[in-house]
Amino acid sequence: MNITSKGRYALRVMLDLAQHPEDGYVSLKVTAERQNISLKYLEMIISHLKKAGLVESTRGKEGGYRLTRAPGDYTVLEILDSIEDNLAPVSCIQAGAVTCDHAAACLTIPMWKELDDLTNAYLSSVTLADLMSGKKWAAAGEIAPA
Question: Class of 1-135 per CATH?
Answer without folding.
Answer: mainly alpha
